[in-house]
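Lab meeting notes turned into a lecture example. A postdoc, R.K., suggested we walk through two folding results consecutively so the class can see how the record format repeats. The first protein's sequence and structure tokens come next.
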Amino acid sequence: MRIVMAGASGLIGTALSSRLSSDGHDVVRLVRRAPSSPSEIPWDPATGTLDPACLDGADAVINLSGANIGARPWTPHRIDELFRSRLDPTRTLAAAMRRLDSPPLTFISQSGAGYYGDAGRSLLTESSPAGQGIMARICVEWEAAAHEAPSGVRVVTPRTAVVLSRSGGALGRLLPLLRAGIGGPLGSGRQYWPWITLPDLSSAFGFLLTSGTSGPVNVAAPETSDVNTLVAALAGALHRPALLRVPAPALRLVMGKLADELLLASQRIEPTLLQDSGFTWQHPSIASAADWVASGK
């Protein structure tokens, strides 16, 4: 397949493009700088600039664009940036597809588990309603923008869980602390974090390219876990204690509303469509995921 990918330079994009290339697919990357190889195409989503001919002949488009949610405090300017960095690229891609006589058959445009807001202990499937908060609003608008693709394009909006990797991503700051034996749960630790390992995430996106599934898909591991369990499993795999809990008030003092939505919100997600479609996880349990993270192999 010829696959055009936006957001290929991030943690997920780098792993996914490598996986797709190794599987024999032709991956073309959209870049905001001068192209450095024939496999790169320039675009400027901030101004809606993309030559539709770049998508002509592509079998699928994968959109992973979006500024890092937790990189900086959520000032009004930053919140606007979080919206624009997701909506502008998605709308640019959809608009380019609408200008083609034969657009790509599949458009996979990332969303997030933040769609559900803070849902406590409720079990969340793809049919569960959107929650409240900034992240929920971003995801609702993000998914709506993807559905601006022309009729006949299969649109998939993966609601991606917290990605566990050996470096960077959601564990980028927590893992070094756990390795040093000075980490611990965040807040009460009773909030559910949906999670998935980076290899399983790449496999899931590859699976969705050909599965025929459309609409929202919960991309998470089948085993749910609260933060206490997740951190304990990681610390155990690293043979370190995890006793230094960070209380919620301290997190809010340092991070403001970002703490409530990114760290303290609870989303107990069930990947119903992936399970029903026959997807197989390499790391289905938190124990196997923690062992993989800790092994470094």
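The second example is placed directly after the first for contrast:
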Amino acid sequence: MQLQAVHHIAIICSDYEASKAFYTDLLGFTIIREVYREDRDSYKLDLALNGAYIIELFSFPDAPERPSYPEARGLRHLAFEVMNIKNAVDELRHYGIEVEDIRTDPYTSRRFTFFSDPDGLPLELYEI
């Protein structure tokens, strides 16, 4: 088996409209396709970043909560590259998003910080 790349990341949200607005209006993902699956009472939203398909956003009625703190088992966080982390943090804060203080990775000397999506999924900004 020779893996080529990560194809997509699937996220289940509790408030479809809030998460759709967060990922599109705030983070700038573009919508590839939006499908309502009546048999499951579920939306599936395919999102792209810079033309590359990257996120499937799902809604399911009564989806159970999952621990989302950074040290829980499973997916720790989803990281996005940014050119200027201070500008990105300022923009998030302008929209009322809580963002941790910017830190510097002691091994790479790159700056990074964390914030959360509407369901508390930990998201990272990593300055390249």
